[in-house]
Specification:
The protein is an alpha/beta fold and about 650 residues long. It contains 25 helices and eight strands. It folds into two domains: about 55-340 and about 355-470, Amino acid/polyamine transporter I; about 485-650, no CATH class. The longest helix is centred in the C-terminal third of the chain and has 35 residues, at about 445-480. The protein is elongated and about 95 Å long.
Amino acid sequence: MPDLTPEQKEIEAQEEALKFQNAKPTAKASKKPLTLIALSVLGIVYGDIGTSPIYALQQAFIGKNPLPVTPDNVLGLLSLILWTLVFVISLKYMTFVLRADNNGEGGTFALLGLLRPKSGEAKPRRMTLLLLGLAGATMLFGAAMLTPAISVLSAVQGLKIIDPGFASFVIPVTIGILIALFSIQRWGTAVVGIIFGPLMLLWFFILAALGILNIIHSPIVLAAINPWHGVVFFRHNGLTGFLVLYAVFLVSTGGEALFADLGHFSLKPIRLVWFFFVLPALVLNYFGQGALLLSDPKNIASPFFHLVPSWGLIPLVILATFATIIASQAAITGVFSLVRQAISLDWMPPLQVRQTSADTHGQIYVPAINWAMMIAVIGLVVIFQTSQNLAAAYGIAVNATMTITTILMFTIVRKLWNWSLPKSLLFLICFLTIDLTFLASNAMKIPDGGWLPLLIALLLFTLMTTWRRGSTLLKDQFNNKSATISSFIGKITADKVLRVPGVGVFLTGRLIYTPSTLVSLLQHTGVLYEQILLTTVLIEEVPAIEQSKRIEITKLGSGFYQIVLHYGFMQGVNIPSDLSSIKEQDLTLDTSKVHYIIKQIEIIPGRKLKGMATWRDYLFGYMVRNTQDITATYQLPDKQTMIIGLKAGI
């Protein structure tokens, strides 16, 4: 690589810093009444955790190590459920984690962006943060695949309560619902979302009402508010009591999902809806199920559906099915958002992402991911057959993500919130102890299905790190063969290279090196366009960049311009649209006459550079061959785009 001047070295060192200097928070104020916002929160944020009562409590009494239905066991489990919701959701997430938003956005990638593990930091710490964040994201992918399977299947299993003869219809009906659910994703959720809020309002009202009706018959369950019953539970059951903690954890599985949905709303309505409506409804329903079991232990198979008299069973099954569809919809769209964030942050290849709403940027559709998820979810239903079997696999994925969130939060409270070390350690020890206790219990379910989300996470982790590593090596390979832009301009000026009318846009990932496409064009044609725009797209580790802060222009001389386009990781890239907004005096562009020059790389496996194992070399080559065309990714017009082929061995 050519020697760099001190000034050029400084520019190179600041390339990462450029990702943040124009990142300004995007205002998310809403003029809607708080009641309407709260209704929307119910439909989008709380669908996952709101359907847990269908399957959570019964797992302790019908699993591999079932407990006998005794007053002590029922009260102990109810106490553990209550205080899990208090400590994990109310205290950890509502009080602390949801405050750690990245300019209003939540989720693992947003949390990692908030920490900003830049290349200037110590390498071990930077790599630890990156790998932890990536591990949490891949675990969340695994959990999202399990959510539609366990949610819809648990609701449809209510058919067996209506009539045991309907048992043979459970799997076909579940598969039919899932196929329909994934098939409508192409049209987006704007229309369907209108009814989400009212349906979930009805759902939580029914949860609370059914709980109260059954508590009236056995008010002794209210004693479970005393945490001492949880202590007695472990004293009486020992190891068995520890093993069934995975069932208790299921009541909190929506915690990480609601954090990922933070970007849709402000913190205030999410907290208000939780403390004044969702939490009371959930607790009342769990206590109602406990009261039912104390009155008649025979109801242990699906106690949720036994909360209603026979005449109300069919309506409850129908309502539960709609509620689980809503929970599944939230999981699917959450995966779409995670995929787009991963693509923007260069952890995944550029798959096709379609915008399904002109008003709401978060409503997107990723065809490849949608159909892959459908096949995976249907496969889970066919393999596991019942929600009881799926529960063993479900908990560990969410639990692992929550544990990683706690560790990342320790860094945030210490480094960003400037907490003292003792206070930060107290936070870490308290919540990490809870997370690890649940994780140890969930780990016992690995042989029974818990291996599945771990395998999914491992596969995704391998694909994502391979893409990131291969992309980095590929960029370095081309950069090492490139001269600096200043020396290139000096050379073509001295050689009096022929310039032809027109504007050439050359995409480049680095700010000081000459794009390989520009060098190849000059070598093969001997001429250059009159104006050259060296265009760099930077995806910032913040959700959105204001239009006024989007474009940076640097005049380099001899008709060369450096264009830097800044986008948030939640925004789509449209290069022609942004170039058309340039109003520099000597750079007024007619985008219909602009020529876009891009490269198409053919990977030659086996000719690798240091840093990439041979098997990953072949895997990366396969991923490159199957990536989304960059013309679609950047919205480049086909008739104005020239492709220059390049061969590379990594």
